[in-house]
Amino acid sequence: MLNAYFKGSLYQDLSYCKRNVIKHAQQEKRENPSHKIHIEKDSFLYPSLSDEAYVNSFHHQAIKDLAPHFKVVAKAPDGIIEAIEHESLPIYAVQFHPEALSHKYGEMQDIFNVFIKKCEVK
């Protein structure tokens, strides 16, 4: 939704997307990861998750064409974009659900800690 608002486009249904090699319709419980993502080193996620992480996945839509002034900061092995951030504004987004993983995987709680830190008034 964020990407579409800023004039990007979406794959409306990943089950029809030719790029969707892995299943994004997770069969496991929400608190279990289903696939790996690769994280860019200069991203808001990198301090918490390093360069790879396992995430859950409950989305049937995904970013197709990235909105102007955003950059991709995490992708799944099939090329599906899993996280973005704005180049100059404090706008960050993930396609997975760290809140469901945080009680089992401390690094997912770290994502919330980074988010809270970014929200602090200076």
In short:
The chain has four helices and seven strands. It has helices at residues 2-5, 46-49, 98-101, 106-119; strands spanning 10-11, 35-39, 52-55, 62-63, 70-75, 81-86, 92-94.
Largest pleated sheet: 5 strands, antiparallel
If helices are DSSP runs of H or I spanning 4 or more residues, what is the number of helices? 4
Distance between the termini: 29 Å
Kindly state the mean pLDDT as a whole number?
84
- Side by side, the strands of the main sheet go 3-2-5-6-7
Helix-strand topology string: HEEHEEEEEHH
Shape: globular
Q: Portion of residues in helices?
A: 10-25%
Low-confidence stretches: none
Radius of gyration: 14 Å
What is the percentage of strand-forming residues?
A: 15-25%
Structure, described:
- The structure is a single chain.
- The protein is α+β, with helices and mostly antiparallel strands.
- The chain has helices at 2-5, 46-49, 98-101, 106-119, and strands at residues 10-11, 35-39, 52-55, 62-63, 70-75, 81-86, 92-94.
- A five-stranded antiparallel beta sheet has the order 3-2-5-6-7, with no helix packed on it.
- The chain is globular, with a radius of gyration of 14 Å.
